[in-house]
Design a protein that fits this description.
The structure is a single chain. The chain is an alpha+beta fold. The chain has three domains: about 110 residues, 2-Layer Sandwich (Beta-Lactamase), CATH 3.30.450; about 80 residues, Helix Hairpins, CATH 1.10.287; about 140 residues, Heat Shock Protein 90 (2-Layer Sandwich), CATH 3.30.565. The chain is built from eleven helices and eleven strands. The strands form three sheets. Strands 6-8-9-11-10 form a five-stranded mixed beta sheet, with helices on one face. Helix 2 runs antiparallel to helix 6, helix 6 runs parallel beside helix 7 and helix 9 crosses helix 10. It is found in: Cell inner membrane.
Length: about 450
């Protein structure tokens, strides 16, 4: 039975899920705005309900009393008219009502009451007056509380004549709309001001921690960062600083180790070269010299992949000029390369690293295509560079695999100049160090498109 009821309950939950998705899409994404909503919304709703209930009940009581007093005056006038019927114009009664009671009255002979008008959907005054007239006067009546804005008209049937009474609305009704609106707007502004003042100080350390983490991830200096804010934020900041120090120590140790390895291996290769230079030129010696050259290139590739030039500082760089240099280097070795750039060319990057990233992608494209196109654009806070070739491309299932170190396709699409299979992994590492990424897709001409996208 529970299984049979599941589709029914799922159908009932569809509107709630749809509404939840729409609200989630409309909600602000920042912590500052969300915290304001979480704090302000319940307080404003609670205050609105309490204020509305309190004021509505208070002003309802006031309106009932004012209506009862006005109807009591009208009932006295009716008694006077019934007691002194010999006065045809009721001049004294009209004067007393005007001077003493603040009511404008007139007695209209032989006139029926107007037809009953539709009752307003919500009118405290209409219900209060109707109830009091029926209780105190108990005669046929007609009232108009929605006609003229500052007056209330009441007509009472007195046998063959009609008593017409005009009373000021303030005599019968106490309005609370202006006070309620003023109260809600005023208190909401006070609460909002206090919440903004306190939340700004609480959110700022979190923003500083996020900025410091982003700067450290992109190789920028974060020396002026220190733990601030609440205890939990200070703990997170202290953990970040400890992590940063450990990473910097590891990078320093790795750089020192790689420098020593590089020095020792280059020394050995240099001895090989000197020994080969002393030998007579033979096919075997030429083959050994080529092997030594290959070892030198492979060594440089491995060291570059491990080192990643982490010590290079960021600098404002002209990307248009950088693209032109990469394209010119490729043309110098016989490749057909064109480039263009749109937008602001000045971007803060690690210039040598980023140039190597583009060079790896261009040389990888040159190895498999006849014509290479570089398209760069800087807009909406992002630098996007496309490297398109007209080669055979890469199957979609292999486009992520080629970014693994030493991974090679059958056609060795991932080889760099040293033949180590590290060209694309190095390019992606550099892009990710800048906070972006390198992705592969199909080029417009059917070849391969390598896209570099970094925040700028």
């Amino acid at each position: 039975m529970a299984r049979r009821s599941e589709p029914f309950f799922d159908a009932l939950l569809v509107p709630y899920r749809f509404l939840g998705k729409r609200m989630a899409a409309a909600m602000p994404k920042g912590l500052y705005a969300r915290a304001l909503i979480i704090i302000i919304t319940p307080i404003v709703i609670l205050q609105s309900v309490v204020a509305f209930v309190f004021m509505e009940r208070h002003w309802q009581t006031v309106t009932q009393r004012l209506s009862a007093a006005t109807v009591r005056d009208i009932a006295a006038i009716v008694d006077l008219i019934d007691t002194y019927p010999e006065d045809p114009n009721y001049a004294q009664i009209v004067r007393i009502a005007q001077d003493r009671l603040g009511l404008t009255i007139s007695v209209i002979p032989n006139e029926p009451l107007p037809p009953a008008a539709p009752k307003p959907f919500f009118s405290l005054l209409d219900s209060a007056l109707s109830r009091e007239i029926g209780r105190q006067i108990n005669k046929p009546y007609w009232i108009d509380t929605v006609g003229r804005s500052n007056l209330v008209e009441i007509r009472i049937q007195l046998g063959d004549k009609v008593l017409r009474v005009l009373a000021r609305r303030s005599q019968t009704y106490a309005s609370n709309s202006e006070i309620f609106i003023f109260w809600m707007v005023g208190t909401s502004l006070v609460l909002l001001t206090i919440a903004i003042a306190f939340l700004r100080n609480q959110i700022r350390p979190i923003q500083q921690l996020a900025d410091a983490a982003e700067d450290f991830g992109m190789g920028r200096e974060t020396t002026d960062f220190s733990p601030r804010g609440a205890r939990e934020v200070r703990r997170a900041s202290a953990a970040f600083m400890e992590m940063r120090n450990r990473i910097e120590r590891q990078m320093e140790q790795r750089t020192t180790m790689l420098a020593g390895v590089s020095h020792d291996l280059r020394t050995v290769l240099t001895r090989f070269r000197l020994q080969l230079a002393l030998l007579r030129e033979t096919p075997d010696v030429r083959a050994m010299r080529r092997d030594v050259d290959d070892m030198q290139r492979m060594l440089e590739g491995y060291l570059a992949f491990a080192r990643d030039d982490a010590d290079e500082p960021t600098a404002a760089t002209n990307i248009g000029t950088l693209l032109a240099e990469v394209a010119e280097n490729a043309r110098r070795v016989g490749h057909d390369v064109s480039q263009d750039f749109r937008g602001d060319p000045i971007v803060s990057i690690r210039p040598n690293d980023f140039k190597r990233c583009l060079s790896n992608l261009v040389m990888n494209a040159c190895r498999h295509g006849d014509h290479i196109e570089l398209h760069g654009v800087h807009t909406e806070g992002w630098l996007v560079i496309h490297v398109d070739d007209d080669g055979p491309g890469i199957d979609e299932t292999e486009r992520e695999a080629v970014f693994r170190p030493f991974y090679r396709l059958d056609e060795a699409r991932n080889l760099d100049e040293s033949g180590t299979g590290l060209g694309l992994p190095i390019a992606r590492d550099i892009a990710r160090f800048h906070g972006g990424d390198v992705t592969l897709s199909e080029a417009p001409d059917g070849g391969l498109r390598a896209t570099v996208r970094i925040p700028a």
